[in-house]
Specification:
Helix 16 crosses helix 18. The chain contains 19 helices and nine strands. 56% of the residues lie in helices and 6% in strands. The protein folds into two domains: 195 residues, Fumarase C, Chain B, domain 1 (Orthogonal Bundle), CATH 1.10.275; 293 residues, Fumarase C, Chain A, domain 2, CATH 1.20.200. With 508 residues, it is mainly alpha-helical. Pathway: Amino-acid degradation; L-histidine degradation into L-glutamate; N-formimidoyl-L-glutamate from L-histidine: step 1/3.
Length: 508
C-alpha cells in the first residue's frame, strides 16, 4: 500500500499531490506520536491546575479575558467549532479538501498544538477512508488562520456538518458511520488547535504551485511550436546571451527552448530571414524565466509553511511553557500567493501575444486567422478573442489581496492577511492560463500545417504529434470550443511534458 509517513517536519509538495490526488494513505511516525502525547500531557496538567492560558481556560479573540472553568472546556471547544463554521460560496474540490486535511495532520503532529492522539487519529482515519468534509471556499480572513474553512472540516469530526463519502453528499454523522469512524468530543485546546492555522490557503497554494511548475514547462513547449510556425530565430537562445545575465529561470528556459527545437527545419538563425524577432519570441527566456523564478520562490515559502506549527497558543513541553503568539497570521503566504498569481498571469499574457502573431497576417506570412478560405470562414479569429478575454480577466484577478485588511473581533485582530483570497485568485489565474496556452498550442499546430511542415524539433515534433492524435487540421469552420477543450485536456494531463522528457530529458 502506498503511504506517506507523517513526522511534522519533512512533508513535501510532491507528498501533498500523492495524498490529495493519488490517494496515498498517511501514517504517523513513532516520533510524531511521542511529541503529540508529550504536548497533550502539559495541556491536561494546566487545565487540572486551572492556570489561565489563552484558548485553553479562556475565551477567544476579544473574549480572551473571559475565564473558562475546567468543567466548561468541552462546551467551549464545541461552541468554537459550530459558531466559526461560517463559510459560504462554492465548495473546495476534493483534492484541495484532502490537502487541507493532510496539512492540518502534519502541523498537529509536530507536538506544539496539544491535541489528543485520539483526535488526530480521527482526522487521519477520515483522510484514509476518504470521508471528505464539505468546505466552502469563502469566509476566511487568513488570520487568525483559516478559521471558517477549517471549522467546516472539524464539524464532520464531531458528527456535524456535511461530507462526501463514496460519491454521496451526506451528513457528517452519516458519513462517519458508514466509514466506521466514531465522532469525537473535543476537549481543552483541541478545537482551537484544529482551526487556528493557514492550512486552507496553503493547500490551495501548494497544489497551484505544483501545477504552475508543470504549466511553465508547457508554456515553453507552446512557445517552441509558435517559433517553428513563425520561423523564429533561435540565436537569441544562445547560452552566451544568458550566461551574462544569469537568472536561473532565464537560463533554464533558454536551454529548454534549444533542446525542444533541436534539429528543427522550421526555425532560423540570426540574419537568415530577418535580423531579430519581436519580443514575445526573442524574449521567451526572460519572460518565462522570470515567472519560473517567482514560482520557485513561492515553492520555497510553501515548503516552510507546510512543516510549521501555525496555531495559537503553542505548546513547548520540554520547557513546560505555553506561549501565545501569531504564527496563524497568513501574511508570509498572502504575499507569496499574490506574487504567484502575477507570475502565472504573465505566462498567459505572453502566450496570447504569440497567438496574435499567428492569426494576424500583418505580423506573419500565414493566412489571416489561420484559414485558407477567409471570409466564408473565420478560422481562429475568435480563439484570439477568447484568449484576450481570459488574459484581461487575469489582470483583474492579479490585483493583490494582501494589501487589504479589515479589522475583526472588535479590533483585537486588527490586521489580517486575506491570504486565502490570494491563493484562490492564483488558482483561478492558473485555470485561465491553462486555457490560453492550450489555444496557442492548437493555433501553432494549425499554423505549422499551413506553413508546410518541413520537419520539427526533437521535442516539438512529439508535442505536435500528440495534439494531432486528438485534433485535425481545420479546413473549414467547425465548432471550435470542442477543439479547444481537447487541447486543454492534453495540457491538463501534463502528457506533453511527460512524453517529451522521455526523449530529451528533464525540462526545467
Amino acid at each position: 500500500m502506498n503511504k506517506v509517513i507523517i513526522t511534522g517536519n519533512d512533508l513535501t509538495i510532491e507528498d501533498i499531490v500523492k495524498v490529495s490526488r493519488d490517494y496515498y494513505q498517511v501514517e504517523l511516525s513513532d516520533e510524531a506520536i511521542k511529541n503529540v502525547e508529550k504536548s497533550r500531557y502539559l495541556v491536561d496538567k494546566l487545565v487540572q491546575e486551572e492556570k489561565i492560558v489563552y484558548g485553553i481556560t479562556t475565551g477567544f479573540g476579544k473574549f480572551s479575558d473571559v475565564t473558562i472553568s475546567k468543567e466548561e472546556t468541552k462546551m467551549l471547544q464545541r461552541n468554537l467549532i459550530i459558531s466559526h463554521a461560517c463559510g459560504v460560496g462554492n465548495c473546495f474540490p476534493e483534492d484541495i479538501v484532502r490537502a487541507i486535511m493532510l496539512l492540518r495532520i502534519n502541523a498537529l503532529s509536530k507536538g506544539n498544538s496539544g491535541v489528543r492522539l485520539q483526535t488526530l487519529n480521527t482526522l487521519i482515519q477520515m483522510l484514509n477512508k476518504r470521508v471528505h468534509p464539505i468546505i466552502p471556499e469563502k469566509g476566511s480572513l487568513g488570520s487568525s488562520g483559516d478559521l471558517a474553512p477549517l471549522s467546516h472540516m472539524v464539524l464532520v469530526m464531531i458528527g456535524e456538518g456535511e461530507a462526501m463519502y463514496e460519491g454521496e453528499r451526506l451528513s457528517g454523522k452519516e458519513a462517519l458511520q458508514r466509514a466506521g469512524i466514531s465522532p469525537i468530543d473535543l476537549t481543552s485546546k483541541e478545537g482551537l488547535a484544529l482551526i487556528n492555522g493557514t492550512q486552507a490557503m496553503t493547500a490551495v497554494g501548494a497544489l497551484t504551485v505544483y501545477d504552475a511548475i508543470n504549466l511553465s514547462k508547457i508554456a515553453d513547449i507552446a512557445a517552441s511550436l509558435t517559433m517553428e510556425a513563425l520561423n523564429g530565430i533561435v540565436t537569441a537562445f544562445d547560452e552566451k546571451v544568458h550566461r551574462v545575465r544569469p537568472h536561473k529561470g532565464q537560463i533554464n528556459t533558454a536551454k529548454n527552448m534549444l533542446r525542444i527545437l533541436q534539429g528543427s527545419n522550421m526555425t532560423t538563425e540570426q540574419g537568415q530571414i530577418r535580423v531579430q524577432d519581436a519580443y514575445v519570441l526573442r524574449c521567451i527566456p526572460q519572460i518565462h524565466g522570470a515567472s519560473k523564478d517567482a514560482i520557485e520562490y513561492v515553492k520555497e515559502k510553501i515548503n516552510i509553511e507546510i512543516n510549521s506549527a501555525t496555531d495559537n497558543p503553542l505548546i513547548f513541553p520540554d520547557e513546560s511553557q505555553i506561549i501565545s503568539g501569531g504564527n496563524f497570521h497568513g501574511q508570509p503566504m498572502a504575499l507569496s500567493f499574490d506574487f504567484l498569481g502575477i507570475a502565472i498571469a504573465e505566462l498567459a499574457n505572453v502566450s496570447e501575444r504569440r497567438l496574435e502573431r499567428l492569426v494576424n497576417p500583418a505580423l506573419s506570412n500565414l493566412p489571416a486567422f489561420l484559414t485558407q478560405n477567409g471570409g466564408i470562414n473565420s478560422g481562429f479569429m475568435i480563439v484570439q478573442y477568447s484568449a484576450a478575454s481570459l488574459v484581461s480577466e487575469n489582470k483583474v484577478l492579479a490585483h493583490p489581496a494582501s494589501v487589504d485588511s479589515i479589522p475583526s473581533s472588535a479590533n483585537q485582530e486588527d490586521h489580517v492577511s486575506m491570504g486565502t483570497i490570494a491563493a484562490r485568485k492564483a488558482r483561478e489565474i492558473l485555470e485561465n492560463t491553462r486555457s490560453v496556452i492550450a489555444m496557442e498550442i492548437l493555433a501553432a499546430c494549425q499554423a505549422i500545417d499551413l506553413a508546410g511542415n518541413k520537419g520539427l524539433g526533437e521535442g516539438s515534433k512529439i508535442a505536435y504529434e500528440i495534439v494531432r492524435k486528438h485534433t485535425d487540421t481545420i479546413k473549414d469552420d467547425i465548432v471550435m470550443y470542442k477543439e479547444i477543450n481537447k487541447c486543454e485536456e492534453i495540457v491538463r494531463s501534463n502528457m506533453l511534458v511527460k512524453e517529451i522528457e522521455k526523449v530529451i530529458g528533464t525540462l526545467n
